Amino acid sequence: MKKIIAILLLSIHLIATTELYQLLKLPILVEHLIEHKMQDNNITIFEFFSMHYALEDVRDADYERDMQLPFKTHNHINQVDCNVSLPQYSLSVITLPAIIQQHKTPVYRSLFIHSVYLSTIWQPPKTC
């Protein structure tokens, strides 16, 4: 039951908001084809569609009937224009003063490093 209701609501929505409502005019298309068949029995469906859709609209005796066919006229009432404008914000850039930090490097009093410190690196591991 939910599936049937979903299909029904989707169909109503699509027919109301798109050009699918033109499909409801298919019986008029069939009737008009039968009218042409009664006038000229040799006309084919291809010739009928070519005459009414491929060629330019000729204002003949059945012009009003031709304009009732599906997809001959379009209804643009359902067209919705949605213009969205975003508020304009002005961004001001604040520049912070540059803080200069002086890094003091330690000054060794002597450039000479005693060998006792260097020799401890290269000792073999000691047993625990």
Give the helix proportion (percent range).
Answer: 25-40%
User: Any low-confidence stretches, pLDDT <50, length ≥5?
Assistant: none
Number of H/I helices: 5
Rg over C-alpha atoms, rounded to the nearest angstrom: 43 Å
What is the ordering of alpha helices and beta strands?
Answer: HHHHH
Write down how many β-strands occur, each being a DSSP E stretch of 2 or more residues. 0
Largest sheet: none
Average pLDDT across residues? 78
Indicate the structural class.
mainly alpha
Q: What oligomeric state do the depicted chains represent?
A: single chain
Distance between the termini: 83 Å
Shape: elongated
- Portion of residues in beta strands equals under 5%
What can you see in these coordinates?
The protein has 128 residues and is an all-alpha fold. The protein has five helices and no strands. The chain is elongated, with a radius of gyration of 43 Å. The model has no long low-confidence stretch (mean pLDDT 78).
Structure in a nutshell:
This protein has 128 residues and is mostly helical. The chain contains five helices and no strands.
Helices, strands, pairings?
Elements: H1 2-17, H2 26-39, H3 45-54, H4 63-66, H5 115-119
Any descriptors?
0% strand, mainly alpha, elongated, 5 helices, 128 residues
